[in-house]
Specification:
The chain contains 20 helices and 8 strands. By secondary structure, it is an alpha/beta fold. Helix 5 links the parallel strand 3 and strand 4.
Length: 457
């Protein structure tokens, strides 16, 4: 079996060598840093505490040497391949990888047949790792079932997409589903720090300046594999310059991307966010896009950006464009569904739509005024005709007895007191004449006059 066939079998994979992981025997000095630094045990795995905790299903599976298929769901670079490798090494099983990009039903069946032959010959069990299993067709996924059902292989299937939509039900029901979380900046920093000193990595030959570390961590975007690839390239750039120090210039040169001066915990975070919101509020779509790009390039949490847009849609646009909130919420949902970098398009879409929309802060001032009255103690009793009249004895108390059903009144609007006496004349909502709110203003003023008995015009 060869990589050209869509299969990869690590020679000697899974042998208890006391050293590297399941692929350790194939490693050499020129292997990529990300491959050389692949964790060998669960304890070396960075992040995923929920999977590594004592008594967690994955730890029980590995340490108990059980035969159970796994379905690993999570973003790129969070350790899916690594977990398969660890399972193979720590349970002394062959490691065979099938690429869902290039393999077909023939290759899948060949891998399972080979694993079955190993078992029949009294040899080791096989860990069959299927990367990007969501790319497999239904027929290809069906081909995995015999091996899973009969336990000819321990299947470890990895996916970045929701398996409830992309994996067939029979395979899903026969596998233990484990959800991997995105790595934090601290996790990525720990991965980089370990690679700097580990003998399998850069072995202390380089030091990394803090500014360069921050740059690499931001560009990695929670992907451990990407962070090590960038570190290796930056070390190469420093080496070419005859330096053992990886500075910001080396890091920028290596990944061909300038560092964005932006501290997500400091003043720049608040300044850029403030400028972004004020640019959208001020209807300058170009400036808003500039600040959006700065935040995204610096690795700002896209969910944070989306939340700010959802707030702005009601705070600064309101009923001047009733579709603004729908647009912002849709963008926030798209961020959750799609993830970066593609979700950047959804954020840009919402940013432009909200920037060019007519603006009104009438919703903000209305709820602010109503809240101020409540806090000032203006909380009168609910008018008797509006009170709940469903329970026994309510009518004796006069609850609801004089209530006018709105749909029975002309235009569906009845002259009737709704507010408590203490705020009877309050006019919290003051619509503007901007955008769609102009029509709302005209209607609301007529409706308010009818309700309060001040005429229909």
């Amino acid at each position: 079996m060869t990589e050209g066939d869509g299969l990869f079998e690590a020679p000697g994979a899974g042998r208890a060598t006391g050293g590297g992981g399941a692929l350790s025997t194939t490693l050499h000095a020129s292997a990529p840093l990300a491959v050389r630094m692949r964790p060998r045990t669960l304890d070396e795995l960075v992040g995923q505490e929920q999977l590594r905790a004592p008594g967690a299903p994955l730890r029980q599976l590995i340490e108990g040497d059980q035969s159970m298929s796994l379905l690993l769901w999570g973003p790129p670079g969070t350790g899916k391949t690594t977990i398969a490798s660890i399972l193979s090494q720590q349970t002394d099983r062959r490691f065979v990888e099938v690429s869902a990009v290039s393999a077909g039903v023939k290759e899948v069946r060949a891998a399972i047949d080979a694993a079955r032959g190993e078992l029949a010959g009294g040899r080791r069990e096989t860990v069959l790792f299927v990367d990007e299993v969501h790319r497999f067709s239904k027929a290809q996924q069906d081909a995995l079932l015999p091996g899973v059902e009969n336990r000819w292989v321990t299947l470890v299937a990895a996916t970045t997409e929701n398996p409830f939509f992309s994996v067939i039900s029979p395979l899903l029901s026969r596998s233990l589903l484990l959800r991997l979380q995105s790595l934090t900046d601290d996790d990525i920093g720990a991965v980089v720090a370990q690679a700097l000193v580990d003998e399998r990595g850069l072995a202390g030959r380089f030091t990394l300046e803090e500014a360069a570390l921050d740059h690499l961590v931001r560009l990695a975007g929670g992907d451990a594999r990407r962070s090590l690839t960038y570190l290796e390239a930056a070390a190469g750039a420093a080496s070419v310059r005859g330096s053992s120090v990886i500075d910001l210039e080396s890091a920028e040169t290596a990944v061909d991307q300038a560092a964005v001066r932006y501290d997500r915990q400091g003043d720049q975070h608040y300044d850029v966010t403030s400028a972004f919101i004020k640019s959208v509020r001020g209807s300058d779509a170009d400036a808003a896009l500039h600040y959006l790009a700065r935040m995204m390039e610096a690795g700002e949490d896209p969910r944070f950006i989306a939340r700010r847009l959802v707030i702005l849609a009601s705070e600064d646009i309101g009923l001047a464009d009733p579709s603004a909130l729908t647009t912002a919420v849709a963008a926030a949902q798209a961020v959750q569904l799609i993830g970066m970098p593609e979700a950047g398009l959804n954020l840009a879409h919402a940013t432009i739509a909200l920037a060019v929309a007519p603006k009104s802060n009438a919703v903000t001032t209305a709820i602010g005024a109503a809240t101020a009255d409540v806090r000032d103690g203006k909380i009168g009793p609910v008018p008797a005709h509006l009170r709940d009249a469903h329970y026994s004895g309510a009518k004796k108390l006069g609850h609801g007895s004089t209530y006018t059903y709105s749909h029975d009144a002309p235009y569906g609007i009845a002259e009737q007191q709704y507010a408590p006496d203490v705020v009877l004349d309050a006019e919290y909502y003051q619509p503007t004449a901007l955008g769609a709110e102009a029509a709302v203003k005209e209607r609301w003023e007529r409706v308010r006059r009818i309700i309060r008995g001040k005429g229909s015009r």
